[in-house]
Automatic annotation (TrEMBL):
This is IFT20 protein. PANTHER family: INTRAFLAGELLAR TRANSPORT PROTEIN 20 HOMOLOG. It comes from the Eukaryota. It is found in: Cell projection, Cilium. It comes from Polioptila caerulea (Blue-grey gnatcatcher).
């Protein structure tokens, strides 16, 4: 114990297995503890970076998926617009065809009435011709 006190006064300290060191045992223990805490901190920082990295990757994937769905929605909307325009054009064509057929029907009706009148006139002429004989 007296030897340790003399060494301590000289700034030297005996450790386990009689190793001679300059640091006081308490300072050495604190240094070792600090080293362990730093190592743990570095490990946790690395783990945190890994987590952040995978989170960024996930957010990127979600952004790409959202962009893809947005493009699909835009495509579907454009398709619906073009279908609506096609339907409108078809409807206009059919309306024009209906108008044309109505005019044709009116011509046929007038022609029919004219033919009926001619038939009536001819029948009347025949009747008069028969009665004259």
């Amino acid at each position: 114990a007296m030897a340790q006190a003399a060494l301590g006064a000289a700034g030297l300290h005996l450790y386990e297995l009689n190793k001679l060191r300059v640091l006081e045992p308490e300072v050495a223990a604190q240094t070792a503890q600090l080293r362990e805490e730093c190592r743990a901190f570095v490990d946790k920082t690395a783990e945190f970076q890994k987590i952040v990295g995978s989170l960024i990757e996930l957010v990127d994937q979600l952004a790409k998926a959202a962009e893809s769905e947005k493009m699909k929605a835009i495509g579907a909307r454009n398709l619906l617009k073009s279908i609506a325009k096609q339907r409108e054009a078809q409807e206009q064509q059919l309306q024009a065809l209906i108008a044309e057929k109505k005019m044709q029907l009116e011509r046929y009706r007038i022609e029919y009435e004219t033919l009926c009148k001619i038939e009536a006139d001819q029948n009347e002429f025949i009747d008069q011709f028969i009665f004259q004989k």
